[in-house]
Each structure stands twice: as structure tokens, then as C-alpha cells.
């Protein structure tokens, strides 16, 4: 459908050239920023494992580590990102939330009506679901 439009857009070489792009942060800052984000995700979601002592130790300090990483992230956001970037980030995040949340809530509502809750029947019988995806 959009084949002709794409041909015209590809002809415009200015879309593919790097013109007046100024790096706001150095490479090490970007790497450190993403490492902190990954660290927050890892420690906040760390599961309890009693079979290995080191995993137990990490689990007992997971919220402490997550808090430290959040403090570092807050400092980085204040020092490394200007006000305009932070406002644009919040605006973009809110726009995505407005798009996703209605679909998520609608999907949960429909799933609740069709599949029911644990221990109760709904519009789709439990045996049908067990035959399709298993009994667990």
C-alpha cells in the first residue's frame, strides 16, 4: 500500500545522513546509565533461592541495592539530563501509558469474563482451557 511513498522517502538522502547531531553525553555516560537501569531491573526482580548461599545473601540485600541504584539514577538524571530532556521523557512515557493502559485493562477485563478466576467457572469452561494449554 505504501510502496510508492517509501520509494520517495528513500530518495531523500537527508533522512539518512547525520547532520548537526550533537552528542549530549559521552559514551561512558550512556553505558553507565544503561548499566544502572539494568542493575535496577535485576536487583528489584531477584528471586529467593535457598539452595546457594550467595543468592540468599544477594536476596537479603536486594532492596538496599535497588535503593542505592535508584539514588545513583536520580543523581544522573538531574546532572546529566537537562530540563527539556526530562520533560520530553515524561511526556513520551505518559503518551505510551495512555496508549497501553486501556488495552491492558480491557484485556484483563475480557480475560476475567471469558476465563473466570481461580476456582470458579466463566463463559469458557475450564476443561476447554486445560485441553488447550494444560492443567497447571
TrEMBL record:
Transmembrane parts of this sequence: 27-47, 59-80, 100-116
Keyword terms, alphabetized: Membrane, Transmembrane, Transmembrane helix
GO cellular component terms, A-Z: plasma membrane
Presence of the UniProt keyword Transferase in the record: no
Protein name: Uncharacterized protein
